[in-house]
Amino acid sequence: MSTKALFTYAVHRIGRHPEAEVTMTARCLAAACGWELAPTGDLAAGDEACMTHTGLHPGHDRFERQWSEVSLVTRANGATVSRAGSAR
Question: Which residues form the DUF7848 domain (predicted)?
Answer without folding.
Answer: 1-68
